[in-house]
């Protein structure tokens, strides 16, 4: 096996970032926990740059460490579907455009260019048109979104309990490429993004202040607290993750069982055949997937830049202008591009592991100081309410067949947003799932991920609502003081506790690593979709698409169009609601045809028969 990661560029980067990480780490830790040592000698912008250098150097070093996997060979192993082909710089530059799919590449670049031109030249008309379109889709299309998400949940439950769950992706002799913990870690961190840290402390508070119409409770009441936590579970639990399974499992089945290419358009295999997946309909599906992915990631980067800077401001009383946000996005882009170009088995896998460790550490620290009796009682009540009401909540629109304002702005908007992320997350899940039984894929992507997310929202949400309800902390007043920004909600909660500074420090680190683990994966996925089907994405393609996502995020900040681009990404949830229906109908028909005689009795007991293995550093 060749040693991966010994290129001159990566070797030089490793040597450079070690001293940078040590020096910047000393400054950041000293300033955070011992501010009297540093005093006011460093300006706010210098603090931001130093923090970014610390995170960027540490995570980049982790990403470019060598490993015993040879990716330098000029052959493409179809069984390792997210492999990155590494070429010399001259070859990469010379052949870049010839390897890109002209339609996927061209339409995506032109579409984002036109969006920002419109935002600059006719901003009010652009905003009005997109907002009107989003309001129409989420209000009058609410029944479609609710129905599709309900269908996705039922599909997941059937795969868990039915005979098709025993289908082994790749055939009976296929073996997983990653151990189960690595498999779960990479999908969970890629699929949830930074939304879990952005909304974890905030969503229940907003529902507490303005209760959902499904529950007839007064704002700020005890009943509003339970309703708030119930809907937080609803919006981030089983229903949401089912969208990823609804696309991920069909893509994986057609790729591994029917020889389709690793594309979102693989879901059209039963309708067109695996040899006809170059049609205009397939191109349309893949282009929409690329647009939705870039729009969703770029918007998320812009939002978490706000949250990170608000946290620094809250801790050190340092305000930042647009340049501060641009600096943050630039630093974050550097991290996820380095991670993405290093490949799944290095940067993406390792930073995902760091992410989960920090996630668990923060949860343990927070639980140690939180009002545990309150958390347990509130969580038990909310879980019971969720179990009793999840079906009627799934069908509730509030105004007959039309969504009322609250449902449209929260529930239906959430369903559309998760559906717009489903192509990217589903494709990544499919690429990781060779050698897994379908039941294991669903247990991971639907059950385990949902439980991890729900525990987080119960822990942070119940504490935040309790502190607000008892007037121990005026969290909503802090939100109002920051212009109604959800980004600040967690910091006054953390400050309440004796280890508040440590909680804020780890939380800021979580913001960076959670966004990195989604952005590096999305960069790789976009590069796969935009590259011609006969080629593996090159390092140059990874750098281009990662830089493009960062550029879109910077443009969003400069033109103040984060919400507008987010609305456009949400609008793509409409077409993908229909794509999900096609995917489920097609997969059920295919399974009925090719696996009709499969019964649950034929399934080996447990997953042990598909013994997980992991190569030396894979």
From TrEMBL:
InterPro entries tied to this protein: BCCT_transptr
Annotated TM spans: 12-34, 46-65, 103-122, 142-161, 182-202, 233-256, 284-303, 323-340, 352-370, 415-433, 440-459, 502-529, 541-558, 564-592
Keyword Transmembrane helix attached: yes
Topology relative to the membrane: Multi-pass membrane protein
Gene Ontology terms, MF aspect: transmembrane transporter activity
Gene Ontology cellular component annotations, sorted alphabetically: plasma membrane
Keywords: Cell membrane, Membrane, Transmembrane, Transmembrane helix, Transport
Compartment(s) where it occurs, according to its Swiss-Prot or TrEMBL record: Cell membrane
Stretches the record annotates as Disordered: 597-618
Coiled coil: none
Keyword Transport assigned: yes
Chain intervals with Basic and acidic residues compositional bias: 608-618
Pfam families referenced in this protein's UniProt entry, alphabetically: BCCT
Protein name: Choline-glycine betaine transporter
